Amino acid sequence: MTETGTVLITGPTRNLGRHAVLAMAGRPEGQRPDLLLVGRAGRDLTAIAEEARALGARVHEIGCDLAMLADVRAAAATARGLVADGVVRPLRALVANAGTMSVDTRQASPDGYELTFAVNYLAHAQLIGDLLGSFTAPARVVLIGSNTYHANFWRKLLHVAEAEWADPVSLARPAAGEQVPGMTASGVAYSNAKLAILYYAHELQRRAGAGIGVSVFEPGWMPGTALGRGAPAAFQALSRALGRIPGVSTPRRSGPLLAAMALDEKWAHLRDGAFVVKTKLTEVRPVAHDRDRERRLWEATTELLDRVRATRRER
Predict the structure, then answer these.
(1) CATH number of the domain that 79 lies in?
(2) Which of 47, 83, 160, 307 is the most core-located residue (most Cβ within 10 A)?
(3) pLDDT score at 4
(4) Which of these, 55, 4, 2, 54, lies nearest to 34 by C-alpha position?
(5) Can you list the residues of the chain whose pLDDT is less than 50?
(6) What is the spatial distance between Cα 224 and Cα 250, in angstroms, rounded to a whole number?
(7) Residue 59, in any domain of the structure
(8) Residue 74, exposed/middle/buried by CB under 10 A (0-12, 13-18, 19+)?
(9) Model confidence, pTM
(10) Which domain holds residue 267?
């Protein structure tokens, strides 16, 4: 990175996030950023913070349940305070890494939104929006994407559900009635959230200003990670087996690549939601570029986030 400052990363305790944190913390003096680790308070967050400190990094833990938008706003306020008071160096990058895939799309977040959409998308939109004024240019926002938004031959063969886009207010609404058997509904919800991230990245760049570059990182398929820990046992066993195939992505391999997206000069030029698959700049499918959907997503996101604030005030 041209100027080494502070990197905020969500979901730092496991898998991709953990290995990205260790890769950043293990950089040589002068290239090592200060780290703001945003995740659930507790033993796991403390453990990764201690590992990063042992490598020489200056680390601050910010406890936050990303399923709760009030928690997200509090975490952003804490980060703003640390930056404004000079406790950490200027904020140069935000890595929106945390994610989940709920196996039951009827499950709601504490704010009443479908859980996958709430954590993967809404929480990060809230966090980034609250911190936009705290960045020092040149700065980067790195979002985590997935190619699951469209179905190629292999995804169809493996029955990986592609996105089924609808108005964002509908996507945020938990399903009603009987749960669809298998992983289809949860897969669609996950792919919808990842398509939302691509739309959001394009619109965010239009509104973020020239000093902030917005990009999207796809770590590659990482079977066996905690993302699908609520999936049926047979599915998890198959994922673990596939994860042992040579060449398949793993958090240990992809974590340092994510760290590079936030820090390396090689990626300093990325803007406009540029999509990087591991180490390759890749053109997204035409469905992932839609000005009307992007504009509507921004409007609906504001509506959904404001609705939670208004409800909290009424209580």
Answers:
(1) 3.40.50.720
(2) 83
(3) 86
(4) 4
(5) 1-2, 226, 229-236, 238
(6) 9
(7) yes
(8) middle
(9) 0.91
(10) 6-314
Residues 6+ apart with CB under 8 A from 82: 36, 60, 88
**How far is residue 176 from each of residues 112, 264, 277, measured CA to CA in Å?**
13, 45, 35
Q: Tally the domains of the chain.
A: 1
Cα–Cα dist 307/118, whole Å: 13
At 252, list the tokens. 């240990």
Pairing of strands 280-282, 34-39: unpaired
Residue 272, H or E segment? none
Q: Report how far apart, in Å, the C-alpha atoms of 302 and of each of 76, 125, 129, 214 are.
A: 17, 9, 10, 19
| 9 touches 62 (CB < 8 A) | no
Reduced to 3 states, what is the DSSP secondary structure of residue 265?
Answer: helix
Classify residue 1: in a domain, yes or no: no
Q: What Å distances lie between residue 148 and 114, 154, 170, 171, CA to CA?
A: 19, 11, 20, 16
Q: How far from each other are the two terminal CA atoms of the chain, in whole angstroms? A: 45
Structural domain contains residue 289: yes
Q: How far is CA 43 from CA 14, 65, 116, in A?
A: 12, 14, 24
CA separation (Å) from 50 to 54, 56, 80, 88, 307? 6, 10, 22, 17, 38
How many Cα atoms occupy the beta-carbon half-sphere of 256 within 13 Å? Answer: 5
Determine the Cα–Cα distance for residues 83 and 2; give it in Å rounded to an integer: 19
CA distance 216 to 113: 24
Distance CA 118, CA 49 (A): 26
Which residues, in sequence order, are CB contacts of 154 under 8 Å at separation 6+?
none
Helices 291-314 and 123-131: angle between axes, nearest 10 degrees: 90
- Tell me, what's the pLDDT at 225? 53
Q: Which residue has the tokens 């590992």?
A: 51
Structure tokens at 89: 């160096």
- Cis (ω within 30 of 0) for the bond into 246? no
**Between 69-84 and 123-131, two packed helices, what is the crossing angle to 10 degrees?**
30
